[in-house]
Specification:
The structure holds two protein chains of two kinds. Chain A is 71% helix and 0% strand. Chain A is mostly helical. The chains are: A mainly alpha, B mainly alpha. The interface between A and B is large, with 46 and 56 residues.
């Protein structure tokens, strides 16, 4: 944006981008529900009630009950705990190791960078889900194995983003100044370059958490992620799929939770990107 | 152009080799061994040894890899443990279904994305623009299996406009059976393409060469299609190529939801049945399919903008 832009188009200082406010609100609420599910849920997630099987939404059960008489709302709420965990655990290790490897590769350049480029090329030729379920098939289903499978593939994207950013930073004067001061490479990379290079990786992290929820619930749906009777949105949708024509509420409401949480993460990511862009 | 094609074809060789290394490493190096996975927890040592010998797992890794590459190169991917058929036969049988589903989804995604992107870009900042962009956000957060289940229930089970699954007999019937799954699969891709194309159109619509074309008195439609769309498409085609992997991932889930006998369904079934050779073979086949698609989209980009090949 140049100075020639009319005043109304100039970025307003201080004001937070609207997507960030909306997304942030959704996320904060989601975290609150995930942390204290029992405060919000009217029933136990696994409480069977054989007098209330497959009941539609009512005052007693706002989202109805499933084929075991379990309260769908309470299950959706308790699923927040697992699905928000998936969003965090499936992405935090790739984020951590990916940025470190990316920083080292970007700083070193040369053969390390060429080799890394080939690894990236190889990984992106695999359909992500196919590679993840192939890994899960070797390790066996379950949440921890799912995290491992996503981590084995996911770090590459963070590393690629960080390496590109470090390559820019290492040519700047302050990096030379650090070298002239006799700082070690490690100190220059992690104390000086990385803090200035990490922004794009953080923005991607937000989007990645939305993707992790989609992937996690997909694996849950396929029976390769969280295992029933756990309350997890994908598992819930799979549980209700045979009742879609008669008791749609079992599957439909967990899906709304997925879409809403995904929106929370991607809006936050967009808003964060906007905020950090105008700051520069 | 010819030398560019030759160069890109040569680049396929290391890519395929890397694919083989990754798949090989996946099965051999990850914890948990195939034999006990196949036989279950109560496997007898003698059976484990027999399976290991059958799969060649008792030999040195380098030798194993050599044997693996050689057999893949000759089109031998081993036999399915459960279906007792060569994996190559199974893939030849099932992969075309997946390719057809994916191609249909890609076409539908483009048909949905291009007009919407034009509407959003040409009426930037209006209600139409924000509606399209809002739909984009929802489209990206919507899991494939959820959308599929809803479409299947509404248009299949309730309204009975479409079959509730399967693949049908004959080409026309196949198209009819695959329509709903293809729409499901196309949804998020069209959202991604739409967003990219929208900003690409906004990027070129005020460019000098477009203004020049207009001032020459060319018909507005001609300017839009020949000058704006062609240049806006370059980055979208690149994105399209990169999205093929995502599309195939979605196909795995879509085929499961709609009970379509494609490669994705076979993959999921094989994982349930711990049918290692099939999982391994399909992973290779799908990765090779993606790298061939990368090649094709690169060629389309060169056709759109010959400068790319330099």
């Amino acid at each position: 944006m140049t100075d020639l832009a009319p005043p109304s188009e100039r970025p307003r200082r201080l004001a937070l981008p609207r997507p960030l406010i909306l997304g942030g609100t959704i996320l904060l609420l989601s975290i609150a529900v995930a942390t204290f599910p029992t405060v919000f849920a009217p029933y136990e997630p696994d409480a069977f009630d054989y007098n209330a099987l497959l009941q539609g939404p009512s005052m007693a059960h706002p989202m109805g009950t499933d084929n075991f008489g379990r309260d769908v709302l309470s299950r959706v709420i308790h699923a927040y705990t697992i699905d928000m965990q998936i969003a965090i655990f499936a992405t935090i290790f790739p984020f951590f190791f990916g940025t470190i490897i990316g920083a080292l590769v970007g700083y070193a350049g040369g053969i390390a960078e060429t080799l890394f480029g080939r690894v990236v090329d190889a990984v992106i030729t695999f359909p992500f889900l196919v590679l993840v379920i192939a890994i899960v098939s070797v390790l066996g289903p379950g949440l921890v194995n799912m995290y491992i499978a996503i981590g084995v593939v996911g770090w590459v994207f963070y590393a690629r983003i960080t390496a590109a950013e470090i390559k820019v930073q290492k040519r700047l004067d302050y990096a030379d100044a650090g070298r002239a001061m006799g700082y070690t490479h490690m100190r220059i990379i992690f104390r000086h370059l990385l803090p200035n290079a990490i922004t794009p990786a953080v923005v991607y992290w937000m989007t990645d958490m939305a993707l992790a929820i989609l992937l996690g619930s997909s694996l849950g749906y396929l029976g390769l992620g969280a295992q029933p009777p756990a309350a997890e949105w994908g598992v819930q949708i799979a549980d209700g799929k045979n009742f879609m024509a008669t008791a749609w509420w079992i599957s439909v409401f967990p899906g709304v939770a997925i879409v809403l949480t995904g929106l929370g993460f991607s809006l936050t990511g967009d808003g964060l990107a906007e905020l950090l862009r105008t700051k520069r | 152009m010819a030398s560019y094609i030759a160069r890109r074809l040569l680049q396929l060789i290391p890519t395929v080799l890397f694919i083989l290394i990754v798949v090989f490493a996946l099965v051999r190096l990850l914890p948990g061994d195939p034999a006990s996975a196949i036989l279950g927890d109560r496997a007898v040592d003698a059976d484990v040894e027999r399976i290991n010998r059958e799969l060649g797992l008792d030999r040195p890794l380098v030798v194993q890899f050599g044997v693996f590459v050689k057999s893949v190169a000759t089109g031998d991917l081993g036999d399915s443990i459960h279906l007792k058929l060569p994996v190559t036969t199974l893939i030849a049988d099932r992969l075309p279904v997946t390719i057809m589903l994916t191609v249909m989804a890609a076409l539908i995604a483009v048909v949905m994305a291009v007009p919407l992107a034009f509407v959003a870009a040409l009426r930037r900042g209006t209600a139409a623009d924000s509606t399209v962009r809002g739909a984009f956000q929802v489209g990206l957060s919507m899991p494939v299996f959820y959308l599929g289940l809803i479409l299947l229930t509404v248009f299949g089970a309730k309204l009975r406009w479409f079959p509730v699954g399967g693949y049908g007999e004959g080409f026309v019937d196949n198209l009819y059976h695959l329509f709903l799954p293809a729409v499901t699969l196309a949804f998020s891709l069209s959202a991604i393409l739409m967003r990219n194309l929208r900003s690409a159109i906004i990027g070129v619509i005020d460019a000098e060469y477009v203004q020049f074309a207009r001032s020459k008195g060319l018909a507005p439609k001609l300017v839009l299609f020949r000058h704006v769309l062609r240049n806006a498409l370059i980055s979208t085609v690149a994105l399209f190529g990169l999205s093929i992997g995502t599309l195939l991932s979605g196909a795995v889930i879509t085929e499961t939801v709609f009970a379509i006998p494609g490669a994705g369904r076979l993959m999921v079934d094989s994982i349930y049945g711990r049918d290692y050779p099939v999982v391994q073979g399909l992973t290779i086949a799908l990765a090779v399919l993606v790298s061939v698609t990368f090649l094709l989209t690169d060629l389309v980009q060169v056709w759109l903008d010959p400068r790319v090949s330099r």
